[in-house]
């Protein structure tokens, strides 16, 4: 059987959650069956993961036009790449890439992954007017493509607006995010960590306010950058709250911590939570569906707190410290059984193969 060619179409390979998920899909592809290529729309940023893909032997090409000039040039350039590579499958990622993918005809199996619910995420990030228009366009593209939802909660939200999808939950690289033995933190400061963009949807304000209440003996490391950085620094009244900015060594920072916190008001299926659990960190999570989806029927359900309630988070932190032995050593087991990157990639490959076989049969009819 000839190899099934897959073209992955993305805006850039910027270091962020969706790019990590793409790396996991490609890293675990059965190379006897599939052949992969990546095409980016724009030049790579400084924090690009391009070299990670090239290390795997994956060719990465770029159209390289600007966002404005690209409107007029990209379709023609994309067509030339498709004629040269002749993929059977095109998988896009993100609003811009989805726009081009949605404009192609049905000779290709075209799919995308929804990693958020656009109506919520875009409005929170870009405001009601701009975000609302972006969400409207994204849903329009979804209706023209085969859609994979990265979580059951995203599936339900899309289904409520009439968009069908298949659920393939995000995965985590269990080898890269591996645990270390931790000392007993009795008698020393407790080290907590939160990881993610400093934007309103991540609700870092609630975490900072909580650690203002806790005071000495409770250290918080905030990993990430974003428009709320300065506001959060001003809000911080405790020298035990440290803002590190972005880091390429999140796995090491997780291993050095005692507990992970996410106070997000909305998510797809958060990579940072999966990474923390893979490092065997206990997690304290806000009460949203994607968080519950991860810790469903596990001991960490008891550490879920009400969103936007610093005192509720404070109570869960104190509960964790008091009963820490109940929570240690349970995270890795949870993600290993349900959220490994290998399992996630395997499910994508099963989908690719099923659709390719269906298309092959149609062409023979």
TrEMBL record:
Domain Glycosyl transferase family: residue ranges? 187-324
Name the InterPro entries on file. Glyco_trans_1, Glycosyltransferase_grp1
Cross-referenced Pfam families, in alphabetical order? Glycos_transf_1
Q: Which GO terms describe its molecular function?
A: hexosyltransferase activity
Name of this chain's protein: Glycosyltransferase
Q: Which organism is it from?
A: Arthrospiribacter ruber
